[in-house]
Amino acid sequence: MRALLARLPRRPWTAVLTAAVLSASALTVLPASGAETGAETGCRVDYTVNKWADGYTAQVKVTNLGPALDSWRLTWTYTGDQRVTSAWNATVTQTGASVVADSLGWNGALPTGGAAEFGLQGTWRSADPAPSDFALNGVPCGGDGTTPPTTPPPTTPPPSEDCGDAALCSDFEDQTGSTPSGAWRFTAPDCQGTGTAAVDTAVAHSGSRSLRIDGRAGYCNHAFVASTADLSSVGPVMHVRMWVRHTTALPSAHVTFVSLPDSSQNGRSLRVGGQNGALQWNRESDDATLPEQSPAGVALSRPLPTGSWQCLRFAIDTTAPGLDTWLGDEQVPGLHADGVPTQDVDRQWLARTTPPRPTALRLGWESYGAGDDTLWFDDVAVGSAPIGC
């Protein structure tokens, strides 16, 4: 067992973050409109907005339908009271209701048929309608006259709810006593306190059993149940699906409820938990977080609702430092890391370029400050193919 090292808690900024982060979000995908479709149409814009009370993020994809460009400028006008507060992959400025997005040096070239994507975050008070007067380098963008569905049709079949040939598939129905046994074993990494783990026959997502963790506050209260399954060969993308239920909202202090020992970090873990009231990833080796713990970063994550079963899914790339996270059917924008650093999201995470290589799965609770919680886990699966809720 490693010697216990002192850990300095990160300072929460809960007072800065408004209650908007805890509001339910709404996701819409809208095309640009304005010019009629035709040979003169200069571009197409797909504007995907994810909004909650008083705030929103937008992912913007502009496709060049005209001559090749060395650099691009996309303009539009808000008809509500939206205000842009930050942006990534473009320089975005706003004057009154008019917004200008300029390309950066590395993404300015846009061939005919080529596309560029950027994102922004903003606020709104009374109205947040999607803009409809996009223009690329002064040429109006056109649409196809149709309104797409709120959720775009998938390009591949949705993942199956069944485990298939997953390396780990457990609904805990094989547990015969109140103490986890067989393929699941209690463990307390680093140090143990008063946190406990048990097989619960009173609360379950399916069947009649689940795994219950009574988590306690304080660094030396680690309480986990580890699967004995060897996950070191799962991939190249590791897909994790679990159902989780808990009683207490995620606190402002850092907590963890999923831990994946990572051989690329000398056994230190990739950790899923929360901070500042929202879900986050944390890397034990360098304490990097996803998203970054700024108000803008945390606003791009989501709280973990209490008092009901929630489906969490992760996709961890073992060939590159990338991952994705879904809460239910929503892909959480702040819990997404790819090869392009995004302000307030994954710049800190991508500072480490070594791909992760998780080898095991642990479910439980550890807190680095205040924060008791009772959690239940059920219908847990890990495999090399997507696993649905």
Index terms:
single chain; 389 residues; mainly beta; 8-stranded antiparallel sheet; 7-stranded antiparallel sheet; 1 helix; 1% helix; elongated
Q: How large, in whole angstroms, is the Cα Rg?
A: 23 Å
- What proportion of the residues is helical, as a percent range? under 10%
Percent of residues in β-strands? 35-45%
Number of strands: 25
CA distance, first residue to last residue: 36 Å
Shape: elongated
Tally of helical segments? 1
Mean model confidence by pLDDT: 83
Query: How would you characterize the largest beta sheet?
Result: 8 strands, antiparallel
The assigned structural class equals: mainly beta
Strand-and-helix sequence, N→C?
EEEEEEEEEEEEEEEEEEEEHEEEEE
Contiguous uncertain segments of 5+ residues? 1-30, 32-40, 143-157
Question: Based on the structure, what is the oligomeric state of the protein chains?
Answer: single chain
Would you mind describing this structure in some detail?
By secondary structure, the chain is mainly beta. The chain is 1% helix and 38% strand. It has 1 helix and 25 strands. The protein has one helix spanning 295-299, and strands spanning 26-31, 43-52, 55-64, 73-77, 83-88, 91-95, 98-102, 115-123, 135-136, 139-140, 168-170, 184-187, 196-200, 210-215, 223-227, 237-246, 255-261, 269-275, 278-283, 289-290, 310-317, 323-327, 330-331, 362-367, 373-383. The strands form 4 sheets. Strands 11, 13, 14, 16, 21, 22, 23 and 25 form an 8-stranded antiparallel beta sheet that branches. The longest helix is centred in the last third of the chain and has 5 residues, at 295-299.
